[in-house]
């Protein structure tokens, strides 16, 4: 309003009319609470607000009284209140995606200096609704232009998150024309890519529509979880390289949540815990392979070859590391792969999005074996190991980890299986005690390592109990292994470390790491005295990657203990 005196708010940098300072402070406090990856306590909010304690306390009390903030007295934390849920239903009735997304488009374009677009699906094509271009040379996008869904990151992001019925209809009517040598022209390959996108959270296109142009995109979901649009960033492949494109995907995911206020159902935070220094650092640690895997997992030592096999779930690929030469052979399998297991006939058995499959590493040829969840939609297999007696134990999880739909299965070499657990959010780390009478199993979302009594080679599970719990503030348990003394080694996702527990569940030792997301561990080497640690860089903020550039690398140390030789899956003749 003309003639009004204005001043600049310290945090938002917005112009606040005189007399509305208290309101601005309250709104700033709401932003702090809403943007937090983890709920804050009183002292944390006070520090972040920068307000005097009496002023802060009055504002917070008022926000609670009006239902805009909820206080969990038991946990001592603060979250957005129920009034926002009531208001959100009214907002959705008049929701205008273009107007709401405008500020995010501009912010992203300014930060990334690339072309940022807002799109929606128009049958089998993508319609550009809005665009913002960075300074200087940029990829040109015309509002109103339609592009093929199967060849663009935006289109694949929108397809990946459709409900199964809608997706089947779209794929049936879609012609997969080739635009470059990189264009996906097989519906089977496209379906595999869409599954990978659901697991990763964002889509990428590496010169699939135009040579020299890469893009990354995320779906913007509405209150029912279905896509209402997509955010996409396009740039020259010389600037948006494959290594640089993944951090942008993480930033787009955060922007999409801000646009709709829909936090999504991903159960595991994409924000790593702060790095801490510990005095009890173990033996010297070495990054033997700075590979930069998106989601390195499932390390297993192949004693016959004296090599370490492991997977990059989101590449997706199976890798073979030779510690003698330092070389790492990678076999791209074209579909989501989560675990690798040696067999007695020279092949490998994989856990993939299509079940358990045989892999000939030299030819990259896959052959189906069996699928314990063939009729379960929305799930994928996760960690798997060959247990005592030669059977495969494999867990499953929902693609986005949003619901406890996972299970645990024991599979014998005739393809038959038994269900061992259900209702698991993220099935993870598997291991057995040296005498094979105790089985360990992780549910990552709950932060719990379970222990069971079991009969060697038979597979019965009894006396389920909590072996150890990792507080959410310290990270989440991921893959594990057991040494010959019965110690349980667990990778702590977002915790910058590996923990060792004694057989009674007591925390015995911590190995600090220079990366926040270790994923799994195993013992290898000629004497099984080398601890191998895989790691991930997926969804890490750019600032964290700058602090931890070795994220996605393979690490080793010699802690003093030795491992237990891995079993091979006995192929039925």
UniProtKB/TrEMBL annotation:
IclR-ED domain mapped to chain residues: 83-265
Keywords on record: Plasmid, Transcription, Transcription regulation
Coiled coil residues, start to end: none
PANTHER family, A to Z: REGUCALCIN
PROSITE patterns: HTH_ICLR, ICLR_ED
Organism field: Pseudovibrio brasiliensis
Protein name from the UniProt record: SMP-30/gluconolactonase/LRE family protein
Pfam name, any one: SGL
Similarity remark: Belongs to the SMP-30/CGR1 family.
